[in-house]
Write a structure and sequence with these properties.
The protein is mostly helical. It is built from 18 helices and no strands. Its main location: membrane. InterPro entries: Bacilysin_exporter_BacE_put, MFS, MFS_dom, MFS_trans_sf.
Amino acid sequence: MSNTAAIARTMAQNRETSYKILFIIGVCHLLNDSIQAIIPAMFPILEKSMGLSFTQLGLIAFALNMVSSILQPVIGMVTDKKPMPFALPIGLTFTLCGVLGLALAPRFEWIVLSVLFIGLGSAIFHPEGSRVAYLAAGSRRGLAQSIYQVGGNSGQAMAPLITALILVPLGQIGAAWFTAVAAVAVGLLLYIAFWYAKTLETHNALQKKPNKKESANQKGLSKAIWFSLVLILFLIFARSWYISGMTNYYAFYTIETYSFSIKQSQIFLFTFLVAGALGTFFGGPLADRFGKKLIIFLSMIISAPLTILIPFVPPFAAFILLLLTGFILMSSFSVTVVYAQELVPGKIGTMAGLTVGLAFGMGAIGSIVIGYLADRIGISNTMILTGFLPLLGLLTLLLPSDQKVNEWNS
């Protein structure tokens, strides 16, 4: 009887949302992704100092994002079987080494090697960070994932400020400042790791009782679930290519089209990314209330006309459209992660690795393709073409409803 009461008490605690842990892991996500953000933020500087082509810049982004995207699902699958709380601070240590190498790299090849270390650190951090958010979520998974993901998107949004305040005046060596950022993140993740390990003990005790959802997954996924999973990943592909094009190349577009300086171009990009971070935060709670499929659909379809218009309007109108587009398009960022996790329950790390990792991976391929297009047809025409990508959001209509997903896993 006492054992039953203890389990009941633990289950009640698990339904509570641990905002302290969510806040800390969100801050760590911000620090991790702000470090990653210095790489595309340095593109205009590297293009001038080393004479790199758009294709070479795309290869740098490819090296960063592809390593992360390939390893994230792999690490997620491994940690689904055996969670590793202390992998979090270890991963950020790899990132610390990579950012120091980036600051000191004398040639293109050394830059690529350094970003590989940063990509490895990211691959370790993201699946386990998402699992921490899941464990701390209680019954508010959309909100929890939004708090976690808004940290990352806020870190990415800092790239233009980093460029204007640090990298433009200091140049490449300015990246060395971010070794201190990485060190702070390692310290915070040590605290998270101890909480994570303690929480796992409780969850392991609960898992002694059979879990119907996990037992169902062991039998294999149905064709309907496979189709839905592939479709949600394709939608992430469309969104990621657009975000990659804006993050890596929109600064060059404003410099060419509006005759902006590097600092002026970063203000526009900062607007887009900050609005995206805000959209990420609000998307999760909206999905908890109105449904995940609806939010995913609306975020892409409403943003599509805006993304198509952006290359054709004057600077002030572009500023407003960037603000709206960032908020609306990125409102589905955390929602797609939760949708995939509920589509395949019991595989928290794997689904986080696939969805977030795929976003990096598709962004990596997009960087290569968009960089190549910019070299071939010009940056203006390339920006016009990328504006049509969110129209692929119409495919969201083929996804099963939230109620259907719950029925499959009940």
